Amino acid sequence: MAENQNIEWKESWRDEYLKWICGFANANGGSIIIGKDDKGRIVGLKNAKKLLEDIPNKVRDILGIIVDVNLYETDNGEYLDIIVEAHPYPVNYKGQYHYRSGSTKQELKGNALDKFLLQKKGKRWDGVPVPKVSTRDLKLDTFTHFRKKAVKAQRIEEDVLTDSDDLLLENLQLIENAFLKRAAILLFHSDPEKFFTGAYIKIGFFQSDDELKFQDEVHGNIFEQVEKTMDILFTKYIHSSINYEGLNRVEKYDYPKDAIREALLNAVCHKDYAEGAPIQISVYQDKLIFWNDAQLPDNWTVEKLLTKHPSKPYNPDIANTLFRSGYIEAWGRGTIKMINDCIRFEIPSPKYFYDMSGFWVEFRKDKLNEESLKALNLNDRQLMAIEFLKNNKRITNREYQSSFNVSRNTATRDLSDLVEKGIIKASDIRGAGSFYEL
């Protein structure tokens, strides 16, 4: 068995390996095998029986925990297996907190240590109380906004809405021991950045990855940020085309509004506010990207987001308030909803990316939008044929000839050009019955 997140091999014992035991105890547990080399081959221990007694005592005296140590005898020599259980409380080695991540041991410091200690106490970052801030410091207009939304969403008892702001915050579980939680400040304060660096949203339009054309910053509390960001995106950054259905003017944007709003709300709910980086929205000619300093729950992958999954917001107090006001659902359907919105809108499904630097959601335009087609220098016949295909799914060479009153050679030339530009494809059928589709 190879070394992995739960197994570590050491040729001989050193007291510094107590740090590894600390790391396993603070993570998901594991085994340290003493007497094997880094390839997993048994090399044997000369003092195995003495270590069998010494190691449990040192672990107990220095780390304050109990481990099982088992002695194994083989033809190649003896080795010890130290079995470490995951612990529900933080374990430290001489004041240091170590953590097993992957196949490495890390000493937790700064924000990482704060988050680890909160997690072990059953708390989240947004649930930590903040001293010297009262309900009087919060924004009255935001309370009014919340009440209107909550009544419309029917997710809170109406008599609660007539309570004082203090009682409303109590009912939303945003107060602990008479102190406002961090979530209350992010949601209702006029300037959360006085308390939390980077608690805002940046929007930029990029000609290319290294050429920023213009940008905006959106400040205020979370409710204000969501509303302002949606307004700026759909008035300044995201184009719309104008069509008429009879006498009715119909505006169609490059992206479905519901999917963009869902991506924004997901970013707000799952952002790691402790890291101090703003949510970043990058708009390009052909795509739109949300980046967020966020973390997936333990043992989750991007693939899990593509199927039905439980709701596990990184900031549960923020998520609960947004749910009560009707901004979000609480069933973990956001990623699937974005996919379905894009399919109905006839653009590619959004792509999700995650690594230790953050989480991305990428939306791609319909490559058959007016702006993209103009750049391909298509003639009027080809443009009308694309519109025909959007509604009728397929077209034959003969239909092309009759629709535009052109010769077979001209129809073949136009259609072949569209195939070469990757807009349409020819059917597998050749001769009679052949057709083209998007």
Blueprint (SSEs and pairs):
Blueprint: E1 7-10, H1 18-26, E2 30-34, H2 48-63, E3 68-74, E4 77-84, E5 98-101, E6 104-107, H3 110-120, E7 129-130, H4 140-153, H5 158-161, H6 165-171, E8 175-176, E9 179-181, H7 182-188, E10 201-208, E11 211-218, H8 222-237, E12 240-245, E13 248-253, H9 257-270, E14 279-283, E15 287-292, H10 302-305, H11 316-324, H12 334-345, E16 351-355, E17 358-364, H13 370-374, H14 380-392, E18 394-395, H15 397-404, H16 408-420, E19 425-426, E20 436-437
Parallel strand pairs: 1-2, 10-14
Antiparallel strand pairs: 2-4, 3-4, 5-6, 7-9, 8-9, 10-11, 12-13, 14-15, 15-17, 16-17, 18-20, 19-20
Helix pairs in contact: 8-9, 9-12, 15-16
Helix segment tally: 16
Specify the helix fraction band: 25-40%
User: What's the end-to-end separation, in Å?
Assistant: 51 Å
Radius of gyration: 30 Å
Strand content: 15-25%
Strand order of the largest sheet: 11-10-14-15-17-16
Structural class: alpha+beta
Number of strands: 20
Shape: flat
Q: Could you name the ranges where pLDDT drops below 50 across 5 or more consecutive residues?
A: none
Average pLDDT rating: 90
Largest sheet composition: 6 strands, mixed
